[in-house]
Amino acid sequence: MNVAGSQAGINYELFNGGTSLSSVIAGTGGAINLVTSALAGNTTITVRATNPVTSCSVLLTGTSIVTVNPIPATPTINPVGPVVVCEGTAAIALTSSAGAGNQWYKNGSLIVGATLPTLNITTAPGNSGSIR
Question: Is the full-model pTM beyond 0.85?
Answer without folding.
Answer: no
